[in-house]
Specification:
With about 750 residues, the chain is mainly α. It is about 45% helix and about 5% strand. The strands form five sheets. The chain has a three-stranded antiparallel β-sheet with strand order 9-11-10. It has a two-stranded antiparallel ribbon with strand order 1-4. The longest helix has 29 residues. It is globular. The termini are far apart.
Length: about 750
């Protein structure tokens, strides 16, 4: 393999990892050098080494021959299967190709860190260009992920080894477990050590302060949550990066695990969760280490997603227009599948991980004969808090906690807050007088040391944009779940056709497109989908096997319109009936394209009381959003959990109230809002059709989730919580564990739409 040396004239150089020989061992032919942590800018306090995006190797893409060579090697049948292997026990001291790959990806973590320029700073004078080399490296590495995983658990090694030298082939579950426990866990643990909370004092500007814990809203506390939660202390001014290649490789591994059905040769998603949760009782792992793995999988992607939302909201303009270019590469086709979409997969998996930990804790407590209420602190602080943890984390990272009108639970109940701090449920805040943690000093309900909130936005317009982004993210997390494992090749082909059809519909929704503009839909499909569609295409269109599926989808959902000009190409226009499958929040379509689709969408029929319906070109009235596609059985519960979360429903209700309340004739509300929490939301700049539409969209998804459950499932009273909707923070959390019937769609409607929002 070619030698790679990353050199920086501004730093000392240290070797980080070695290359691999053809047998899976290590040699010194490939040496990586990175900048020493001590030589980085003072704002970067992380001690984890990372690549320098300004080095000529990255800026000029001198690694491209290595990437091309790897792709050629992986095209050889069986070589990808050999990648997912570990050395035999007899090969003492030899590293594996897999471990070297993990170490190489670790070097790319957090490269090209971005630092927010505060309101008091001017616009950047010289726009940095390191982001180009960083994105090129991330995209190139991401292009290898699915190639490295293009094997089945039943596949054998392509090489015959002598006795005692045969490597241990890992299953898809085994590979994901190895990368999580041996690679990602180590990186996250080292990175988390560099995060420290600060005092909430006027001596430091607000964007450089961060609390040790994040306060829950009183809404969540009334439904079983604690007063605050442990979270990474991240101030707005801390450097962050779009680039987490190791995390995204984990996401690629998780997608492969989701393809395997439960009980298959190598196991499926449930088996992976069982292996991870069993680590908690393994003496080789520290108590709480698995919880920290899931917490890191949730925290680090949320930072990227929230900062991208801030950039779209216009809060990073002083950093230059290059920030918008980075968001486009991160969140829109064709590269979003390997970047933003992977982060979404990690959040969904983290929620399942917390639920699995909750199940283990409940079972162990029951076996010990200990009452659950006696272990409330440890119980709420770990497993079952997963969904309410994510929602609260998003409220704080997006900076809309106060704008949404939530009250802080520690302020409303300081006595219980200090009791939870003393019990070790989460850390206390630093005392502004002696800068010591609050759990090391004398605590009292009268103490002023409480966690606080922060937002980088200064006006209602920016806060509204952040609210729209958060509602959109919740919609995506509910809608875009992994598909059920295909039963056979025919089932996989059917799923692939449905996915490409969905992409085509949403490309055409914004307006007619030429055929050349539609060929990019393949870039956001899984490589396995493109392969299976190409195989079938050979039987239909041998001359254009890869385009056969696109042609079939176009014939189904679009009409070809001949061009009037000689040189202009023909265009495809979406059929009228296909609009029923259009999702106004589809995540591979930009906001501008959705706005164009709203203008192009045929109007619905409205029949008056004394006449017939209007033009036949109009559509029949239908739900605001289409029914989500079937989801993987392990992930299905996410739809019930998120749509029954009390904080989410309170956020939706607040949005509806802001937009639908009665306004006096002079354009103002009849109520005095001087003492109203989040009163900025009631200003004209705090309202938009987009926010209102997304609130309605979330309610539509809730109706689908709970209606489908009532129709297709009949849970015994003791197990309905395991299918989602009854955890900490849920409006159904108060129901008893034993003997209570599963909540129905009627119950959800009652709690979501008809109950007092304070309940």
């Amino acid at each position: 393999m070619r030698s790679l040396t990353f050199l920086s004239p501004y730093s000392t150089h240290q070797p980080i990892s070695n290359g691999m020989d053809h047998a899976g061992g290590s040699n010194s032919s490939c040496m990586f050098y990175v900048s020493s942590p001590a030589s980085r800018p003072q704002t970067d306090i992380s001690m984890v080494p990372t690549l320098d995006p300004l080095h000529p190797v990255l800026t000029h893409r001198r690694y491209s021959p290595c990437i091309s060579d790897l792709k050629c090697v992986l095209n050889v049948p069986g070589m990808a299967r050999l990648f997912a292997s570990l050395p035999p026990p007899s090969a003492v001291g030899r590293t594996s190709c897999l471990d070297d790959w993990i170490q190489s990806l670790s070097l790319g973590q957090n490269m090209d860190g971005q630092v927010w320029r505060s309101w008091g700073e001017g616009h950047v004078e010289t726009e940095p260009r390191g982001w180009v080399g960083a994105f090129n490296a991330s995209i190139s590495l991401g292009s290898l992920f699915e190639r490295l995983l293009s094997w089945e658990d039943e596949d054998k090694s392509p090489i015959c080894y002598p006795d005692g030298l045969t490597p241990k082939l890992l299953s898809s579950v085994g590979l994901a477990y190895h990368v999580l426990s041996k690679g990602l866990s180590s990186w996250q643990k080292s990175e988390m050590m560099s995060y420290h909370s600060t005092c909430n004092t006027a001596s430091s500007p607000p964007h450089k302060r961060c609390p040790a814990s994040l306060p829950f809203p009183t809404t969540a506390a009334r439904h079983g949550a604690s007063r605050a939660m442990k979270a990474l202390p991240i101030e707005q001014a801390r450097p962050w990066s779009f680039h987490l290649p190791l995390h995204r490789f984990v996401a690629a591994c998780l997608r492969e695990v989701a393809r395997r059905p439960k009980g298959s040769v190598g196991g499926g998603m449930d088996e992976l969760l069982e292996r991870l949760t069993s680590m908690e009782g393994d003496g080789r792992w520290a108590v709480g280490s698995v919880h920290e793995i899931f917490r890191g999988i949730m925290e680090f992607p949320v930072v990227v997603l929230s900062r991208a939302a801030q950039i779209r909201a216009g809060l990073w303009k002083r950093n230059g227009p290059g920030m918008q270019d980075q968001v486009l590469n991160y969140a829109e086709p064709p590269f979003c599948r390997a970047l933003r979409d992977a982060d979404l997969t990690l959040l969904q998996f983290a929620m399942l991980g917390f639920c699995s930990l909750s199940k283990v804790e409940v079972e162990s407590n029951n076996m010990s004969g200990i009452d659950k209420d006696d272990l409330k602190c440890s119980f709420v602080g770990k497993g079952e808090v997963g969904f309410v943890h994510l929602i609260n984390l998003l409220l704080h990272r997006f900076g809309i906690f106060d704008f949404a009108g939530f009250a802080k639970a520690p302020n409303a109940d300081p006595a219980n807050y200090f009791d939870e701090v003393k019990s070790g449920l989460y850390p206390g805040e630093n005392d502004p007088d002696n800068e010591s943690p609050v759990d090391t000093i004398e605590l009292s309900p009268q103490s002023p040391v409480l966690p606080w909130t922060y937002t980088p936005a200064k006006d209602a317009t920016a806060l509204l944009s952040l609210l729209e982004e958060l509602l959109h993210l919740l919609i995506i997390l509910i809608t875009e779940l992994p598909s059920p494992p295909p039963k056979n090749r025919a089932d996989h082909t059917k799923q692939a056709k449905q996915r490409i059809r969905r992409e085509v519909i949403h490309r055409l929704a914004s307006g007619p497109k030429a055929h050349s503009e539609l060929t990019e839909v393949h870039h956001v499909l899984p490589q396995r989908d493109n392969a299976v569609l190409s195989e079938e295409g050979k039987l239909i269109y041998p001359d254009d096997a890869s385009g056969a599926a696109l042609e079939e989808a176009l014939d189904q959902v679009a009409e070809r319109k001949s061009s009037r000009g000689r040189l202009a190409p023909d265009q495809w226009e979406l059929r009228r009936w296909a609009w029923s499958e259009y999702d106004p929040a589809f995540f591979h379509t930009s906001l501008r394209s959705h706005q164009s689709a709203a203008e192009n969408r045929p109007k619905t029929n409205h029949t008056s009381s004394g006449g017939s319906s209007s033009s036949p070109s109009r559509l029949k009235p239908q739900a605001y959003a289409p029914r989500p596609a079937p989801a993987h059985p392990s992930f299905q519960r996410i739809r019930r959990d998120l749509t029954s979360d009390a904080t989410v429903l309170a956020l939706v209700y607040r949005t509806l109230h802001v937009h639908c309340r009665k306004i006096s004739t002079n354009g103002t509300s009849n109520r005095n809002m001087s003492d109203l929490r989040g009163k900025l939301a009631y200003e004209p700049e705090g309202m938009s059709e987009t926010a209102l539409a997304r609130a309605v969209h979330l309610l539509s998804l809730g109706a689908y989730a709970w209606g489908d459950t009532e129709k297709n499932n009949h849970f015994p009273p003791e197990s309905w919580r395991s299918c989602g909707g009854g955890g900490v923070g849920s409006v159904f959390h108060h129901l008893p564990n034993n003997g209570s019937a599963a909540p129905s769609a009627r119950d959800w409607i009652q709690m979501a739409l008809l109950s007092n929002p304070r309940d």
